């Protein structure tokens, strides 16, 4: 079955194709998983010329774990355009784009293969539709990558917040059963080494960051306050040391001190002690 038949697109010339990609700040796939309203806003944004100038938008999300694969993000109807103030900035949510019921059963489930590698984010659908092939329809709406094993845990801030907010059981079970040492790296290169022990281990500690943004750390709280909460937006959370030999809090603290020394996070990072 073709994409147009599955989504019942009879007049592609009334659609613009929105290929949402990494914007040098965040992956749209992570946005879709963590905050649906924020994802809707990706289909209301004008960054240059008047691109969403047709009745409908077919929105695709770069499924970055796989090359040339896109996740269906919905069909939007453009109900209006706030032209007045956008003449000045052209960087605002100028479109009144409303998610329709068109293909709603496949939102977050339909994966489309399409080698769209040219620059740009908006195209005439009829020009791209012939290259769009159904790759698969997954049973449930995509909610993020599965737990990859302790040796491969490195999460973006958005991924972490999504995993915690959605109470992902594969991640929760694995991280709750693991004590150890972790690393937080900010976009400016500053790092913080921390550790987790006790009940619910790493899961408890990282959940705290997801809710507070600073985890109670003094230097991180200062950075958070100065940036109005933005300092952590591009951070990554990585497991450093999760050996099963870390059986006591004393051993864990010793390994934490080791990593602080090796990475220099006391002198140049966010560790105050």
What general form does the structure show?
elongated
What value does the Rg take, in angstroms?
A: 22 Å
Q: Span from first to last CA?
A: 61 Å
How many helices in DSSP terms?
10
Integer count of domains:
2
Strand content: 15-25%
Largest sheet geometry: 7 strands, mixed
**Poorly predicted parts:** none
Q: Can you walk me through this structure?
A:
By secondary structure, this protein is α+β, with helices and mostly antiparallel strands. The protein has two domains: 135 residues, no CATH class; 114 residues, no CATH class. 30% of the residues lie in helices and 23% in strands. It contains ten helices and eleven strands. The strands form two sheets. Strands 1, 2, 3, 4, 5, 6 and 7 form a seven-stranded mixed β-sheet that branches. A hairpin with a 5-residue loop joins strand 9 and strand 10. Helix 6 packs across helix 8. The longest helix is centred in the last third of the chain and has 15 residues. The N and C termini lie far apart (61 Å).
What structural keywords apply?
single chain, 273 residues, alpha+beta, 2 domains, 4-stranded antiparallel sheet, 30% helix, elongated
Summarize the entry for a quick read.
This protein has 273 residues and is an alpha+beta fold.
């Amino acid at each position: 079955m073709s994409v147009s038949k599955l989504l019942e697109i009879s007049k592609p010339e009334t659609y613009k194709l929105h290929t949402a990609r990494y914007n040098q700040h965040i992956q749209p796939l992570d946005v879709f998983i963590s905050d649906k309203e924020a994802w809707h806003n990706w289909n209301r944004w004008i960054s240059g010329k008047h691109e969403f100038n047709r009745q409908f938008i077919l929105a695709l999300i770069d499924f970055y774990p796989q090359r040339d694969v896109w996740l269906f993000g919905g069909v939007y109807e453009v109900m209006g355009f706030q032209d007045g103030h956008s003449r000045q900035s052209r960087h605002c949510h100028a479109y009144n784009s409303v998610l329709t019921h068109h293909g709603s059963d496949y939102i977050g489930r339909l994966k489309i293969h399409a080698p769209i590698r040219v620059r740009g984010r908006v195209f005439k659908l009829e020009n791209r539709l012939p290259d769009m092939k159904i790759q698969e329809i997954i049973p449930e709406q995509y909610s993020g990558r599965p737990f990859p094993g302790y040796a491969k845990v490195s999460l973006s801030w958005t991924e972490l917040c999504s995993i915690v907010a959605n109470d992902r059981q594969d991640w929760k079970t694995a991280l709750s059963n693991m004590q150890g040492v972790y690393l937080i790296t900010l976009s400016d290169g500053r790092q913080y080494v921390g550790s987790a022990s006790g009940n619910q281990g790493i899961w408890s500690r990282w959940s705290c960051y997801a809710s507070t943004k600073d985890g109670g750390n003094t230097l991180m709280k200062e950075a958070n306050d100065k940036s109005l909460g933005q300092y952590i937006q591009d951070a990554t959370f990585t497991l450093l040391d999760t050996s099963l030999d870390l059986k006591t809090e004393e051993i864990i603290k010793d390994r934490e001190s080791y990593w602080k020394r090796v990475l220099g996070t006391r002198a140049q990072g966010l560790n105050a002690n």
